[in-house]
Write a structure and sequence with these properties.
The protein is α+β, with helices and mostly antiparallel strands. It contains 24 helices and 27 strands. The strands form 5 sheets. An 8-stranded mixed β-barrel has the order 19-20-22-23-24-25-26-27, surrounded by 4 helices. Strands 1, 2, 3, 4, 5 and 6 form a 6-stranded antiparallel beta sheet that branches.
Length: 751
């Protein structure tokens, strides 16, 4: 690249030098011809005059001629012996030497005697002419061709004709005109004291040898003249020994070598200017290339990072995924030898929301839950396990502290999430496994935290710490399935009752029938655990009928006991498959007739999720039940789906506030507001409100103040077998010692 550039510059310089050289040759020939003609004409005129003598007319002629050509130093007419016969006025004839004898002129003078045309002498210093001149001599011949005189004149250097000044060629080109005898005729770069040395002697042998050597490289020599019109180019020293680019031309007309030269410094300067440009461009180009390259690499890295990100993150919530957890777990656990906790978080009733409102709503909720998780626990320790399950890794902190953190999160989670016109208050259950106590491997910790989470759900506790007893309690779904298969036939199900209390009078006004399952090897399995499985196995219809039948039989023994028997009601939970069943209503009616049970004392508890698929059919069935005198209670109210239209379209006779809200009524103003809202809603629709899960006096007091109509909860009574309930109704408030954790006095019950 740079080499090419150098060649370019060289070529450019050579061209410039060539054309300058041509210019020199052209004007050289022109000027010299002009003087030759001048001298020829002058000679003829002088011959015409009175011969070759010093005469006034002759003198006048040459003086006038000199006036017209001021660049000339003067005219002289010499006889063939070199004596001056006639000179212009300006020359002191006595001081002009004999041309044939003076060493500076003799050579060319004698040449002129033999020549046919003008002879140009060496450049020399002639003080009488006022400086350095180029002498020109022209032989005058008579009729027979004999030389009768020589006209001589001198061209002053630096005057007149443009050829002999340094302006003749464009700077910084220099030129020299060299005679064949190797004397310099003119050098454009020579002035002052240097002139003597320059013109007085021929080019030194040393310089000639250098040139010879340099020319030899091109297959030339100092003796081989360049052909007329062609040029020789080379790097060579100039007169002062400074190197430069030199162009040599030759004209045979007067036997001149013409040299044009450019100093090497100039050539280098031009090259460096070009090179700088090129380098600059190169630099810019390289810079651009670098930037493009870097951008490409970055893009690639970004792509790789994006891929890695996609592989390790959940698309929906942008949270690290399960795989990410597996990848990061070893480092996490290694760096926390003192221990840590793994939280297994599962949303409650998420499937219901998803089924009822569609996946877009479900997705929006999951995203928001992800955001809240990260906000609460931090960016780097929250993972999405899948579905509505999330994992959090947490530092080793005291159990109570961890619980506080989790409770705060659950509270934060309940702040309603807006989806279109609906609001969802999300609840979750958290299972906690602690390393290294509950295990050190990820799988182990996950499994145990999962178990603890199920226990939290079962107990509606929100949070549960893993305990070894969970291991042998239930086991997996398949074991439950196997056990469930023959449970009905084996009579493993029983029904317990949880009293419901009137908020004003404190009387028992009813009881909720709750199914219990005891398996020989699995033990007591909570309904929350087995009902979804039984539902999937298609067993719930049968189980539901069994519970209903049992409850009807049992209530027959209860109603007579109750003082206000007219008001005593038995509440039955109805699962989705039960309500979906065509024969459900008929079966209920038939059972009531069978057991002579007044339908008005039956309460059917339904949850919002039962209206997911087919509100119209479900409503139609409820309407029929209502028509038979049964009451309809909307269970778990406040969770998930809270549509006003549902409330007005269903034939409801009770709203059951979900226990989760009741639990937080004292601590969470949000929940308190929600309960107030539900109670107000019930009032405005003329539907009584029951609060379930009331666990203490303060909660009861607050709920009563808020206007709640009925209570159910451990504070009043735990689910109990029929015999306990019978005794309780018959004997009034707590004739027998209340179950552990329950208050002992009726007075204090209502705060
Ligand atoms: P549910 O209908 O909301 O029933 C109330 C649950 O809250 C019962 O749990 C009861 O033991 C519990 N509970 C009552 N008072 C308190 C309290 O003060 N604090 C706390 N933490 N919990 C309290 P259980 O018996 O485990 O039943 C769980 C769920 O299983 C029920 O929730 C109901 O949805 C379902 N279920 C129970 N029996 C039946 C049934 O016979 N048929 C159907 N379809 N579902 C049933
Ligand atoms: Ca219920
Ligand atoms: Ca409930």
């Amino acid at each position: 690249m740079l080499f090419l550039q150098w060649r370019n510059i060289e070529e450019e310089v050579s061209l410039e030098l060539s054309s300058a050289n041509d210019q020199i040759i052209n004007s050289l020939q022109m000027v010299m011809r002009k003087y030759e003609t001048l001298l020829e004409v002058l000679g003829e005129r002088l011959l015409e005059l009175e011969g070759l003598r010093d005469s006034p007319r002759a003198r006048e002629l040459i003086d006038r001629l000199l006036q017209r050509n001021p660049e000339l130093a003067g005219f002289g007419l010499a006889d063939p012996e070199g004596n001056l016969i006639l000179t212009t006025q300006n020359l002191d004839r006595s001081r002009v030497p004999n041309l044939a004898l003076d060493p500076r002129t003799s050579d060319t003078f004698s040449k002129a005697l033999d020549a046919e045309r003008m002879v140009i002498g060496r450049t020399y210093h002639l003080p009488t002419a006022g400086g350095w001149i180029i002498p020109m001599r022209y032989p005058l011949r008579d009729g027979e061709g004999r030389v009768v005189a020589v006209i001589t004149t001198g061209l002053r250097l630096g005057a007149g004709e443009s050829l002999w000044s340094k302006e003749s060629v464009p700077a910084p080109i220099r030129f020299a005109v060299i005679r064949e005898d190797m004397y310099r005729q003119y050098g454009s770069y020579i002035s002052g004291p240097e002139m003597e040395a320059y013109y007085a002697s021929p080019i030194s042998q040393r310089v000639l040898e250098i040139y010879d050597r340099l020319l030899a490289r091109q297959g030339l020599s100092i003796t081989s003249r360049p052909e007329e019109g062609s040029k020789v180019h080379l790097y060579a020293p100039d007169f002062r020994g400074n190197w430069g680019r030199v162009c040599i031309g030759y004209t045979s007309l007067y036997g001149y070598y013409t040299l044009t030269a450019m100093p090497l410094t100039e050539v280098l300067l031009r090259f460096s200017r070009q090179a700088l440009w090129t380098l600059g461009l190169l630099l810019i180009f390289n810079g651009l290339l670098y930037l493009i390259f870097r951008a490409a690499i970055r893009q690639q890295r970004r792509n790789e990072a994006e891929l890695a990100y996609l592989a390790s993150h959940d698309q929906l919530t942008r949270l690290p995924n399960r795989r990410n957890l597996s990848d990061r777990f070893p480092e996490w656990s290694m760096s926390r030898r003192q221990g840590f906790s793994l939280l297994f978080i599962d949303l409650d009733n998420f499937k219901g929301i998803n089924d009822l409102h569609g996946h877009s709503v479900g997705d929006a909720i999951l995203r928001e839950v992800g955001v809240r998780l990260q906000h609460h626990f931090g960016d780097h320790c929250v993972f999405r396990q899948g579905g509505d399950e999330f994992i959090v890794l947490w530092e080793a902190v005291p159990k109570e502290q961890l619980e506080t953190i989790c409770r705060r999160f659950l509270a934060a989670l309940r702040t309603p999430i807006a989806c279109g016109e609906m609001q969802f208050s999300i609840r979750a259950s958290i299972g906690i496994a602690r390393a290294p106590r509950d295990g050190t491997r990820l799988e182990e910790l996950l499994r145990r935290a999962d178990m603890a989470m199920y226990e939290a759900k079962r107990l509606h506790a929100g949070i549960f710490h893993y305990q070894p007893r969970l291991e042998d309690q239930t086991g997996g779904d398949t074991r439950i399935e196997q056990a469930l298969a023959g449970a009905l036939e084996r009579g493993e199900f029983s029904v317990v009752y949880q009293p419901q209390i009137d908020a004003r009078s404190g009387e028992i006004v009813g009881a909720e029938a709750l199914v219990r399952w005891h398996h020989d090897t699995l033990g007591d399995i909570p309904p929350d655990r087995f009902i979804p499985i039984a539902e999937n196995m298609g067993l719930m219809r049968e189980i539901g009928l069994m519970v209903t039948e049992k409850a009807l039989v049992d209530s027959a023994s209860l109603i007579p006991l109750a003082e206000a028997s007219r008001n005593f009601r038995i509440a039955l939970n109805v699962s989705a498959s039960q309500l979906r069943d065509e024969g459900f209503v008929d079966a209920m009616i038939a059972l009531c007739r069978n057991y002579h049970h007044p339908t008005r004392t039956l309460v059917i508890e339904v949850t919002e999720s039962l209206f997911i698929h087919d509100l119209e059919h479900a409503r139609e069935r409820l309407d029929r039940l209502r028509g038979e005198g049964m009451e309809i209670s909307l269970d778990d109210f406040g969770t998930g789906y809270s549509s006003l239209s549902l409330l007005t379209r269903l034939p409801l006779s009770e709203l059951k506030i979900d226990r989760e809200f009741v639990q937080n009524i004292l601590t969470d103003s949000q929940d308190y507001k929600l309960i107030m809202g539900i109670i107000d809603l019930g009032r405005s629709l003329d539907i009584p409100v029951l609060a379930e899960g009331v666990e203490n006096r303060q909660q009861a007091a607050r709920l009563r103040d808020a206007g709640c109509d009925r209570f159910q909860g451990f504070h009043f009574a735990r689910p109990m077998p029929l015999s306990h309930l019978q005794r309780m109704i018959r004997d009034g408030w707590f004739p027998s010692p209340p179950p552990a954790g329950s208050p002992g006095e009726a007075d204090s019950l209502l705060g």
